[in-house]
Design brief:
With 113 residues, the chain is an alpha+beta fold. It has helices spanning 5-10, 50-56, 58-74, and strands at residues 18-21, 25-29, 37-43, 81-84, 100-104. It has a single domain (5-76, 87-104), classed as HIT family, subunit A (2-Layer Sandwich). 27% of the residues lie in helices and 22% in strands. It has a five-stranded antiparallel sheet, with helices on one face. Strand 2 and strand 3 (37-43) form a beta hairpin. Helix 2 packs across helix 3. The radius of gyration is 13 Å and the shape is globular. The relative contact order is 0.21. It binds guanosine-5'-monophosphate and zinc ion. Residues 4, 6-7, 46, 97 line the site of zinc ion.
Length: 113
């Protein structure tokens, strides 16, 4: 069985609130929101982090950014949004299946780190 939490979420083995899905990506609401609206988007194929994904498949990484913007639009974030992708220990990446955070729905903090 796949031990990766986000692989299991993408496969529907662990429930999540789906926002968007296509053949390559899955997007769902974050379980512990850090803003009024907080979603995540992941590639269905497992890559540990954005460094690994972009090195292996830059086109997929680019497509993921495009889909993150589409999800922001679907979520009604007309006034702006923030995309964050924590990569590695110093960034405190806690789930080692790459994901982009999509944050908005309110004016976000000036600080990013
Ligand atoms: P990271 O710290 O790796 O950048 O972000 C991981 C994110 O995944 C966190 O914002 C956390 O709240 C979210 N998360 C962790 N476990 C689950 C889960 O089981 N379901 C959902 N929907 N989000 C999760
Ligand atoms: Zn995974």
């Amino acid at each position: 069985m796949n031990e990766c939490l986000f692989c299991r979420i993408a496969a529907g083995e662990i429930p999540s609130t789906k926002v968007y899905e296509d053949e390559k990506f899955y997007s769902f609401m974050d379980i512990n929101p850090q803003a009024k609206v907080h979603a995540l988007i992941i590639p269905k194929k497992h890559y540990a982090d954005m460094a690994e994904l972009s090195a292996a498949d830059a086109a997929l990484a680019g497509e993921m950014l495009k889909k993150a913007c589409l999800v922001a639009e679907k979520l009604g974030l007309k006034n702006g949004f923030r995309l964050i992708t924590n990569t590695g220990a110093d960034a405190r990446q806690s789930v080692r299946h790459t994901h982009i955070h999509i944050l908005g729905g309110e004016e976000l903090s000036e600080r990013m780190g």
